[in-house]
Every structure is written in structure tokens, then in C-alpha cells.
Design a protein that fits this description.
single chain; 252 residues; mainly alpha; 8 helices; 77% helix
Length: 252
């Protein structure tokens, strides 16, 4: 039987693996073209993560589970409206904007990791050994890639990047894995799984839209008119590469 102590320690390893992205901070002050490529990769990874969440939560939906549909759709709509409501950004520095975007990314990843932790803890409580091992390695590898999107808003080198703030964002993104593992060992709720998946999707969707808008704004501002179409095409390709990267990581 898998003990609670073992489950907690392995959940800690899974959640802590997000900190393996920390060395990416050394990539400070990159060229704008390189920055756009890295942000496109981050957007692609987030898009894959959102699609993976949709796939997971979709298994709960049938024509006989209207309560599940409501628990998913209502928080999804309300939380997205609250997040995406236009707010005054005039006068805010690039650093403040980067911090806000990084926080939303960390929250979206955190909601998703909370659900993963609940599933992981529940599999341990039920002594599902094979599933337990698969989930442990799969979630750990996935979490290793999730730190990069959190860092991405700071890679321009103009945002007053602070290591302690990034560490806090990593904690927000990774700690829910540990919390979910501990709670899921004693308590299993489909309602909570659907709710947190819904919140994760709305947050990640907002982040992806903001990242895409920012990158195209950068292209319009810094790329010569005759080269903008090519730059936009390259951006689309790198988003797809990021999406495929997320897919391959989850296959390992």
C-alpha cells in the first residue's frame, strides 16, 4: 500500500520540478526576434496545456450529467469575464505588466496542477500502483516545462526581473500539486476536479490571448512593413512547435 508520507514526498517532487526552469532567467536581455520565438513557444505550450485540460474534463460530460456541465461552464464564463474585464494600464511600467501576466500564468498552471495533485493522491489512496507511477513521471515531466511560460514575460530584459518574485510565481504554480496530492489521498471529488479545471482554462485562455496580442504588437512596432507577414508566419510556426513540444513531453 502506498502511504500518505510517500504520496506527500512524491507530490513535493512533482510540484518542485517546476523550479527546474529557473536557469532560464540567465537568458536575460535577448534580441527581440529571439524573444518573440521564446514567447511563441511558451504560448504553444500553454495552448497544449489548455487542450489537455479540456480532454481530461471532457470525460465527465455526458447527456445525463448536467450538473457537471454547469460546474464547468458557469465558473469558466464568470472567471474569464472577471479576468478579462478591461482595466486601466496607462502609466504602468513594463515591469508591472510583466508581473501581472506572470501571475496569471502561475495561477492558471496552479489550478491545473491542483487537479493533477487530487488525481495523483486519489490513485495512491486506492493503491493503483501502475497508474500511480505513470502519473508521477508524467506530471513531473510536464511540470518541468510549465516554469518556462511563467518566466517568459520577463525575458525582454526591460522588466526589472527579480529572482525572488519568479520563485514566488513558481511556488504558486507548483505548490497546488502538493496540496492536491495531500487532499486527494483522503478526499476525492469530481466536482472539485471540474471546478479547478474550469478556472485553469479561463486563466490560461486569457494569458494566451494577451501573449499573442503582445507579440503581434511587437511585430507591428519593430519589424519593417515588408517583413511583417514573414515575421507573423514564423510566429505561427513557433506556436505550433510549442504545442507539439507539450504533446511530446506528455508522451514521454
Amino acid at each position: 500500500m502506498i502511504s500518505f508520507e510517500e504520496t506527500f514526498i512524491l507530490s513535493l517532487v512533482m510540484g518542485g520540478s517546476i523550479f527546474l526552469s529557473y536557469p532560464v532567467l540567465m537568458l536575460n536581455r535577448l534580441k527581440q526576434s529571439t524573444l518573440r520565438v521564446l514567447n511563441a513557444l511558451a504560448a504553444g505550450i500553454l495552448i497544449y496545456l489548455m487542450l489537455a485540460i479540456f480532454q481530461d474534463v471532457g470525460s465527465y460530460f455526458t447527456m445525463y450529467t448536467y450538473i457537471y456541465d454547469l460546474i464547468f461552464a458557469v465558473p469558466l464564463f464568470i472567471s474569464f469575464i472577471l479576468i478579462a474585464t478591461p482595466r486601466e494600464l496607462v502609466g504602468k511600467s513594463e515591469a508591472d505588466k510583466a508581473k501581472s501576466l506572470s501571475l496569471f500564468i502561475a495561477l492558471g498552471i496552479g489550478f491545473q496542477n491542483l487537479t493533477e495533485g487530487l488525481v495523483f493522491g486519489n490513485s495512491a489512496a486506492l493503491s493503483l500502483g501502475a497508474l500511480f507511477v505513470v502519473l508521477m513521471f508524467g506530471f513531473t515531466i510536464q511540470n518541468m516545462t510549465e516554469g518556462f511560460p511563467i518566466i517568459s514575460p520577463f525575458l525582454s530584459g526591460r522588466n526589472g526581473i527579480r529572482g525572488r518574485y519568479i520563485a514566488l510565481m513558481f511556488f504558486i504554480g507548483g505548490a497546488p500539486t502538493v496540496i492536491g496530492g495531500a487532499v486527494g489521498y483522503f478526499f476525492d471529488s469530481t466536482y472539485l476536479n471540474i471546478l479547478f479545471d474550469s478556472l485553469a482554462i479561463s486563466t490560461i485562455l486569457f494569458v494566451v490571448l494577451e501573449m499573442v496580442r503582445g507579440i503581434f504588437h511587437s511585430i507591428d512596432r519593430e519589424v519593417a512593413p515588408e517583413l511583417r507577414h514573414r515575421a507573423s508566419a514564423y510566429f505561427n510556426i513557433w506556436v505550433m512547435i510549442g504545442l507539439l513540444l507539450g504533446f511530446v513531453v506528455n508522451l514521454i
